[in-house]
Amino acid sequence: MKFSVLRTASAQYQFALTIDGVHHNVEGLPTLTEAMHLTLAELKARTAQPGAQISGELTAPIASEIELWGAGVTYLRSRDARKEESGVPDVYQRVYEADRPELFFKSTAVRARGTNAPIGIRYDSDASVPEPEVAIYINKHREIIGYAICNDVTARSIEGENPLYLSQAKIYIGSTAIGPDITPAWLAPAANEMSIKAKILRGSALVWEAETSLGALNRTLEDLVNYVFRCQDFPHGLILSTGTGIVPPMNIALAAGDIVEINVAGVGTLSNTVEVIPER
Fold it and tell me: What pLDDT does 92 receive?
């Protein structure tokens, strides 16, 4: 069983319960927003029985009121990659070791892309890379209610030039892919069982592949939840992408036409083609 968001004839963000590939509505939960208002126990009870079958196109599992945030430098590999590409490497060493994590706003529904939709690389970045991550869905009661895959696409050359360019490196059209759907928290595997595998395909050639596990995260999920809610108000909950533990080496960069595939054990596979976002 999964939670899905569909684009239907009458709704852009229709919340659905998906069982064996068949979508069902959930009475009283028209969008993910209403689901994020419930406690974990209430959500589990409300989705125990599927409603009527519905049809629609699978889209990014988000809603217009919900923000998507990101966490950075939460894995050793991420720390090393950021240090390698940056002119101020000590910044990343310090945040990796600090009590306070790096947290940043990443996306809204209008910028998010679902599985099989194109992701973007900036025309003014010399090198952009995928950042395969596990995203957690946190309801307004600060409970983790589900998991999905996030590709936190990053303009590596822009971030590496100056850490203060982080927003330009992270937030632009097509810079976020999420999906393919949401695995409910009570059906998800343990963190150390969530292997994360990623690859870049260019035509028939395998350009890059790597693997890690959510269990290698340098921080607890509870710690990230605690910090993201500090001095913040998320009346509809939020999605938090927990950071990447696999980053391509410096000689690998995304190109138009590439396909990025990310698989997380027990969660699913997110696949996206790459396109260049031109000057406007």
Answer: 72
Whole-angstrom distance, CA of residue 176 vs CA of residue 181: 14
Helix (H, G, I), strand (E, B) or coil at 261: strand
Phi-psi region of 227 (alpha: psi -120 to 50; beta: other; left: phi over 0): alpha
In tens, the pLDDT along 52-78 reads 999 999 999 999 999 999 998 877 655
pLDDT tens sequence across 158-192: 998 888 899 999 999 999 999 999 999 999 999 99
CB 151 within 8 A of CB 181: no
Contacts of 171 (CB under 8 A, 6+ apart): 105, 106, 107, 111
Can you tell me which residue has the tokens 């343990």?
Answer: 190
Q: What whole-number distance in Å separates Cα of residue 160 and Cα of residue 166?
A: 9
Tell me the two tokens of residue 246: 């696999």
